[in-house]
Write a structure and sequence with these properties.
With 476 residues, the chain is mostly beta strands. It has one domain: 7 Propeller (Methylamine Dehydrogenase, Chain H), CATH 2.130.10.10. The protein has 4 helices and 33 strands. The strands form 8 sheets. The chain has a 7-stranded antiparallel β-sheet with strand order 22-23-24-25-26-27-28, with no helix packed on it. The radius of gyration is 21 Å and the shape is globular. The chain starts with 6 loop residues before the first helix and ends with a strand. The relative contact order is 0.15. The structure holds fe (ii) ion. The site of fe (ii) ion has 8 residues, from loops.
């Protein structure tokens, strides 16, 4: 028995009485559309545009059910805010993989947490395996669905139709291309991104201009390069956090999924590589052994002291969660906590942990990307949340200067998802949350200065969407 012929599907079916499992179901339709939807409260007049979100959604196909929550094909959701109403459209990204597996009626290729023997990263073109399922980014007039090891996919921002692999004007493919590009860190709308290839132990760095021209595409050999999901960018520097979860080729050869082909080696600590964007000079620092989640923002002062926030977890056992939830299993273990880091040349890094803020999905005002900032919005887990309930129930606002937290609780039966800044002067935060008992996805609008007061408006979809990952707001 394997994930391909139904053992995970069976385990999940047996636990579907738990309301939260609705977040890991596969949508009945590959294309969804509804609206205009009824609004509770009042939508701000200046909130005109589209919230795009992406996330793994094809969790089941044929007899198979994926083993990990990050494996499913990406589905883009578009929530359009116009004239006081909201509509929703959802479409799977038509990657090569999606089309081939749709035609076959079964999974054909390995994914992050589910191995198909003989169809792995070692012998398959990575874009044949590309599920385009982690983030949605809008840059230079283009909507991109991003994965991590492969290329970006371009979508039509209006219809969400898939245009195909995106390489801009580059002779080389832009891959690997992480799901976390940073836009506007120099104030001109440039996009910086990276890609980590632990198989080749090669780090790629990209810069696209505000009009989408490729200005930088460089590859660096880095010893023992682990898989990396996010990074930090300041005016003059790129900061990479290398967790001690090292790729093990032998495990992949032996048939383990890529996500299980790592070794936790805490004695290495977290290596920090800082690259100067002006000279490509490299500096290394050392941090404690952490599983690195997301970076909210980073900046440097006139003395080039670099400061950033990151959700980091010293307890690697939380890594098992992504496999467990696909079987309908969850028991809470310590998740990542808000951590502030200061890097000063010639000194050991300074670290401040905020254990009272266990959370994820840190987001900042995009106008402050790479600059001095105060506020990070994130989802948070309140200490009273039942241990059998996964993820986060709160939206929190964290002040990195004061170390203070303001939060709004959706409820123990809810799962809060990433909320992003939107509207004129980034005054609003918009995002989704899943009401697991009512089986409805709810879009909320908060005043970013008064998160604790709760949403100023909410819109309830007539259905539940699978839990997503990252998104962006495009003002129109
Ligand atoms: Fe991410």
């Amino acid at each position: 028995m394997s994930w391909q012929d139904g053992d995970i599907k069976k385990a999940f079916q047996a636990r579907r009485h738990k309301p939260w499992t609705v977040g890991y179901e596969t949508p009945v339709s590959a294309d969804m559309q509804t609206g205009p939807l009824e609004v509770t409260g009042k939508l701000p007049k200046d909130l005109q545009g589209v919230l795009y979100r992406n996330g793994p959604a094809m969790h089941d196909r044929g007899a198979g059910r994926y083993a990990h929550k990050w494996d499913g094909d990406g589905m883009i959701q578009a929530f359009r805010f116009a004239d006081g109403t909201v509509t929703h459209t959802g479409r799977f990204v038509r990657t090569k993989k999606f089309q081939a597996e749709e035609a076959a009626g079964e999974y054909l290729l390995s994914a992050f947490g589910s191995a198909v023997p003989g169809k792995t990263e070692l012998n398959t073109d990575i874009d044949e395996m590309n599920s385009a399922n982690l983030s949605a980014v809008y840059h230079a007039g283009r909507l991109l669905a991003l994965w991590e090891p492969g290329s970006p996919h371009e979508l039509d921002p209006e219809t969400l139709e898939t245009k195909g692999i995106y390489r801009a004007d580059s002779p080389e493919l832009l891959r690997p291309f992480s799901a976390h590009p940073k836009i506007g860190t120099n104030g001109h709308g440039d996009l910086w991104n990276f890609g980590s290839d632990p198989i080749a132990s090669e780090l790629s760095v990209y810069k696209l201009s505000a009009t989408g021209a490729v200005k930088v595409c460089r590859r660096f050999a880095v010893k023992d390069l682990p898989p990396m999901h996010d990074f930090a960018v300041t005016r003059n520097h790129l900061v990479f956090l290398l967790p001690p979860a090292l790729f093990d080729r032998e495990k992949l050869i032996a048939g383990k999924a890529f996500g299980l082909s790592v070794n936790w080696t805490p004695e290495l600590g977290t290596r920090v590589l800082v690259i100067d964007k002006r000279s490509w000079e490299q500096t290394w620092y050392q941090l404690p052994a952490w599983i690195i989640h997301h970076v909210g923002n980073a900046w440097e002062d006139d003395d080039e002291v670099i400061r950033f926030d990151v959700f980091a977890n010293a307890e690697p056992q939380a890594m098992a969660t992504g496999w467990n939830v696909m079987r309908g299993k969850y028991v809470h273990v310590q998740g990542p906590v808000m951590t502030l880091v200061e890097l000063r040349a010639g000194r050991s890094p300074q670290v401040t942990r905020f254990d009272t803020l266990e959370g994820e999905f840190p987001v900042i005002d995009p106008a402050l990307s790479g600059r001095d900032y105060e506020q990070v919005l994130c989802v948070a887990r309140n200490p009273g949340r039942p241990s059998g309930m996964p993820d986060w129930g709160d939206l929190a606002s964290f002040d990195v200067k004061q170390g203070t937290i303001q939060s709004y609780g959706f409820g123990d039966d809810w799962i809060a998802e990433e909320h992003v800044y939107a509207g004129r002067n980034s005054q609003w935060a918009v995002g989704t949350a899943l009401d697991t008992v009512q089986r409805r996805t709810v879009i909320s609008v908060f005043n970013v200065h008064h998160v604790g007061d709760g949403p100023v408006a909410q819109v309830r979809l007539p259905y539940a969407l699978p839990l997503g990952v990252h998104g962006t707001f495009r003002a129109v």
